Amino acid sequence: MDLFKMFSKSDNSKDIAKERLKLVLVHDRANVSPQFLEMIKGEILRVISDYMEIDEAGLEIKLTRTKRDVDDTSVPALVANIPIRKMKDNGKF
Amino acid sequence: MGEVIVITSGKGGVGKTTTTANIGAGLSLEGKSIVVVDADIGLRNLDVVMGLENRIVYDLVDVVEGVCRLRQALIKDKRYNNLYLLPAAQTKDKNAVSPQQMQELTVELAKEFDYVIVDCPAGIEQGFKNAIAGASKAIVVTTPEVSAVRDADRIIGLLEANGLKNPQLIINRLRVDMVKRGDMMNIDDMIDILAIELIGVVPDDEHIVVSTNRGEPAVSNNESIAGQAYRNIVKRILGEDVPFMDLETDQGFITKLAKMFGFVKKR
Ligand SMILES: Nc1ncnc2c1ncn2[C@@H]1O[C@H](COP(=O)(O)OP(=O)(O)OP(=O)(O)O)[C@@H](O)[C@H]1O
Ligand SMILES: [Mg+2]
User: Fold this and answer.
1) pLDDT for B184-201, tens place per residue?
2) Nearest CB to B150: which of A12, A14, A24?
3) What residue owns the CA closest to ligand 1's atom 10?
4) Model confidence over B13-58: pLDDT tens digits?
5) Does B92 contact chain A (CB < 8 Å)?
6) Side-chain-side CA neighbours of residue B100 (13 Å)
7) ipTM surpasses cut 0.85
8) At the fourth CATH level, which superfamily is domain B3-266?
9) Residues 6+ apart with CB under 8 A from B158
């Protein structure tokens, strides 16, 4: 699933511009490099794979923006899409 | 002491020099004394935009290097009261001046003038650092395009990191027809993204090209919508509360904007 499509509701080119800008600015402002995201991805993978089997090829992790529930202001959000192949036995108690 | 305002943008070609010339001339029409400073060393432009290119003898670098006195380098715009230009050097590069020297220079100028308006070069390197060195206020110019807004955001961050809090925004070259079609970001979109105070919106206007051809700032042209936009900006700089249009809905806002600029006939 393309996150970009998920977050934009319109086909107007200005809405596309706005969404693209918002995403690129999250990276610019936080000064987060793709390498840094790769690092986080590796760590998350390491923790989660103790409990479940993951489809690593389908794993996607992105910095984006989301509206905060309490007051609707937009805040940066780390969104991870982690497809699970199957749960590992030791994950069940 | 006068106020030192830097006009900056990050991205090149979005209208800094045009804005500097028009704000300078507009403030003069409001009875203030102004010096506009071309800090774009090596790419001098403010002189031609203002139509003063034939009168340059000394420049900013000459002043800094002590070749001439500050007064000698100032060119008076005879069409206006109390409007002066301090031109950039054309044959030197940006490293000919340091931020420290620029700061001292603007302090001297602020003793003599109500406003010192500094035209900043594009980029975030030495020229930018020089231009902001003596400023107490910054105006960021952008166009409604992805790359210009991205660079504006970066500049806003750098300004704030350098102690220039609360920069204000000018959106230049807005095309109401494209905004209406949904093919150009509108004012709300841009404020939403950049999250700074708006001080003006200048429509894309052929008069700007014509007035630049002639070397006569559009702000004194009553026919020009961009000129009207600059007159409003000048009033806001002076602290007047020139009403902004109702920002409630896109449609309502844009229609009102279009009406204000005369694109839509009032019934
Ligand atoms: N509102 C406008 N409507 C139409 N044309 C405009 C407008 N504003 C600026 N322009 C044109 O855009 C071009 C660039 O403007 P200007 O030189 O002021 O930009 P700048 O930001 O100073 O550029 P640089 O980064 O090279 O110094 C000029 O040709 C100018 O006439
Ligand atoms: Mg310029």
Assistant:
1) 999 999 999 999 999 999
2) A24
3) B15
4) 999 999 999 999 999 999 999 999 999 999 999 999 999 999 999 9
5) no
6) 1
7) no
8) P-loop containing nucleotide triphosphate hydrolases (3.40.50.300)
9) B124, B128
